[in-house]
Design a protein that fits this description.
By secondary structure, the chain is an all-alpha fold. It is built from 7 helices and no strands. The radius of gyration is 26 Å and the shape is elongated.
Length: 158
């Protein structure tokens, strides 16, 4: 099982033997903390190994690209410079002005339209969550959002 998982898994910065070692380390930890009264050991260990591998994948995805082999090595000429992840100041200023204007247009909308746009666009909530929270059918929620966006579009264009 461990060899199969190791062969099927790619984790940036880890080779086959590293992944295999992580699986065996997890297996040893499972043996140490396993409670005989609770579950079957094979299922318990399999899930623990898979969860550990998924954690490794998430951890490597969140790492900065300036770690490991892609790290900047400074030399006398400083030929390579790390690019800035920040946007230029003029783009930031323009974005903030556009955001302020957008909020002015949103304030002109009916309250229900404001609520659904704030929930879905600004707070990154889903329409399904909004429909459950407000006891509204999902298709009705979709229609409300579409009407809100159309009305916002009309406000902006006039």
């Amino acid at each position: 099982m461990i060899l199969n998982i190791s062969k099927r898994t790619f984790v940036h910065g880890y080779d086959f033997s590293d992944i295999e070692h992580e699986c065996y380390a997890t297996l040893l930890k499972c043996i140490k903390i396993y409670d005989l009264d609770k579950k079957r050991f094979v299922a318990y260990a399999t899930m623990a190994i898979k969860n550990n591998i998924n954690y490794l994948i998430k951890k490597t995805c969140n790492r900065s690209s300036c770690e490991g082999s892609e790290a900047l090595i400074l030399n006398g000429t400083l030929g390579h410079v790390l690019p800035s992840n920040n946007e230029p100041v003029d783009v930031q200023v323009t974005d903030s002005i556009l955001a302020k204007n957008l909020y002015k247009y949103i304030d002109k909308l009916p309250q229900q339209h404001k609520d659904i746009l704030n929930f879905t666009l600004i707070n990154n909530g889903s329409l399904k969550e909004y429909s459950k929270n407000n006891n509204i059918n999902y298709p009705t929620t979709v229609n409300i959002k579409n009407r809100a966006i159309n009305q916002l579009r009309k406000e902006i264009l006039t």
